[in-house]
């Protein structure tokens, strides 16, 4: 039987997205949900996650919304907003790691403390939103060690929402995607989802839009659920 970490990212992004993600938990495939602690919607919705038998993670974010740390840094504009992902992608064409290590370290600690304040406990794991450069990885490993939190940032095989985009376009049965892949038997595979509904905030904040709805449909598909009951074991980060 194949073993998977099935993770849903971006909780806190918007009201509609969070509603869709919560709805997708009915399939029992998602065992890990990653939180954007700096997004205002999270404070309104996080209590709805607490009754589910899942792990909750810190989705470390440096390119969406406002910084959590109150101290000025190179990560934000004068209003305290993070620079966009497109801004960093442009910079990374010229420099491999445009993030200043001291500022990343400061923000990692601020987001960890924000998670604890919002959820009432430490995260079960830490992962990252969009970018993982050497400075980000070093900061996350450091804060994870200090807080004694799981921080597994690399898997032998990983598949994200964007990796399913072309398959989704073909409109084949969702379970076909699972059946045609070669999954390692001895190691855990990471499957990343962004299952949710859309509202104006999603379109304003993210370039990933319609695929979120398709991820939601994927997880609630009966044949996909049957696959996970018979062939694929979905586990939490805390079970690694």
UniProtKB/TrEMBL annotation:
Q: Which cofactor does it need?
A: Mg(2+)
The alphabetized list of GO BP terms reads: carbohydrate metabolic process
Keyword annotations for this protein? Carbohydrate metabolism, Hydrolase, Magnesium, Metal-binding
Checking SUPFAM superfamilies in the record gives: Glycoside hydrolase/deacetylase
Question: Per its record, what are the GO molecular function terms?
Answer: deacetylase activity; hydrolase activity; metal ion binding
Q: What is this protein called?
A: ChbG/HpnK family deacetylase
Organism whose genome encodes this protein: Dubosiella newyorkensis
């Amino acid at each position: 039987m194949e073993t998977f970490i099935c993770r849903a990212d971006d909780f806190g992004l918007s009201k509609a997205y969070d509603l869709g993600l919560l709805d997708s938990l009915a399939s029992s495939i998602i065992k890990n949900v990653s939180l954007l602690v700096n997004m205002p919607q999270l404070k309104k919705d996080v209590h709805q996650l607490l009754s589910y038998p899942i792990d909750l993670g810190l989705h470390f974010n440096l390119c969406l919304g406002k910084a959590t740390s109150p101290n000025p840094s190179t990560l934000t504009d004068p209003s305290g907003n993070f620079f966009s992902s497109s801004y960093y992608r442009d910079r990374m064409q010229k420099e491999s790691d445009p993030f200043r290590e001291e500022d990343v370290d400061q923000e990692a600690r601020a987001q960890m403390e924000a998670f604890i304040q919002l959820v009432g406990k430490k995260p079960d794991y830490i992962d990252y939103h969009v970018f993982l450069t050497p400075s980000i990885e070093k900061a996350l490993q450091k804060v994870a060690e200090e807080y004694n939190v799981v921080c597994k940032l690399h898997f032998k095989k990983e598949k994200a929402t964007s990796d399913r985009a072309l398959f989704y376009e073909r409109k084949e049965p969702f379970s076909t995607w699972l059946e045609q892949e070669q999954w390692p038997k001895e190691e855990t595979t990471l499957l990343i989802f962004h299952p949710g509904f859309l509202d104006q905030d999603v379109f304003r904040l993210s370039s990933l839009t319609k695929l979120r709805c398709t991820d939601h449909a994927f997880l609630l598909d009966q044949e996909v659920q049957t696959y996970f009951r018979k062939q694929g074991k979905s586990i939490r980060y805390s079970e690694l």
